[in-house]
Amino acid sequence: MANRHEYEIAFVGLKPGKHEYVYEINDKFFAEQQPQDFTDTHVTVKLILDKKASFLMLKFEIGGTVTLLCDLCGNTLEKSLWDDFEVLVKMVDNPDEMNASEEDPDVYYISRTESHINVAGWIYEFINLSIPLQRTCGENSDGSSKCNQEALDMLRKLNERNTENENPIWKDLDKFRNN
């Protein structure tokens, strides 16, 4: 992940209150990670750190675009991302125990002796969570699909061929499916 220190925030020297950080994320950020199923990443992450006496409230605002493949036809498409996430970082004496027993994924514990917090892992996670699960080309105004029609026709033909080649032994078992 590019320059690791770029994503470290020295919160000890900060005055109580809100502090804003902006990160421009591109494909280099994901280079050291496992291969992603998106490319051409242009994402802006706005982080608002609200420092209190014994905790930090982190609000991540994700916005930008990535290029994906359509789940139906395989065309490349650009998807806009917009999402926000909040993480509560509490300062405690035994952070490892507390993190192991914490059930809320939006709460994270650090040691009272910590002076920096690295937000790169959260940025990585939140960008991935912002990407839609269903990735399709969408529909035109008349309701027809924007997908590559040749690819959709080929899928229909393959599906028809599979139903023709079904074994007749299993046909009688189909009547029990809806019972």
SSE layout:
Blueprint (H helix, E strand, L loop, with lengths): L7 E3 L6 E9 L13 E13 L3 E15 L6 E17 L2 H7 L5 E5 L4 E3 L1 H11 L18 H16 L15
Parallel strand pairs: 5-6
Antiparallel strand pairs: 1-7, 2-3, 3-4, 4-5
Give a verbal description of the structure.
With 179 residues, the chain is an alpha+beta fold. Helix content is 19%, strand content 36%. The protein contains 3 helices and 7 strands; from the N terminus they run βββββαββαα. It has helices at 95-101, 120-130, 149-164, and strands at residues 8-10, 17-25, 39-51, 55-69, 76-92, 107-111, 116-118. The strands form 2 sheets. The protein has a 5-stranded mixed beta sheet. Strand 3 and strand 4 (55-69) form a beta hairpin. The protein is elongated, with a radius of gyration of 24 Å.
